[in-house]
Amino acid sequence: PWYSRVHPDDLAVVHRAYEDCLAGQREFYECDYRLRTPGGWLWLHDRGCISERDDSGRPRVLAGTSQDASWRKRMEDALRDSARSERRRLNEDLHDGLGQE
Questions:
Q1: What count of other Cβ atoms lies within 10 Å of the Cβ of residue 101?
Q2: What is the pLDDT of residue 98?
Q3: What is the pTM of this model?
Q4: How far, rounded to the nearest angstrom, does the alpha carbon of residue 79 sit from its chain's CA centroid?
């Protein structure tokens, strides 16, 4: 049921991180993804690891945390938008100003 609440665009990344950790290909899993909540989409940052395996190496205990990453994601988006705007402004200045001289 948890996977059904993960945003479709993030599902493959979440699944890969989790499965790689379970399979022992990574020491821990870590990923950002959106989760559907009653209030809308919430960005989460998950990090965890297998803390105990059975005698055959299969995971027995998975420990981890989830944090609200919404604020960080908004800041990353704002920074990306600002950089894009600044590149556009510089391109226009070069094209219309210096480039014309």
A1: 4
A2: 56
A3: 0.72
A4: 16
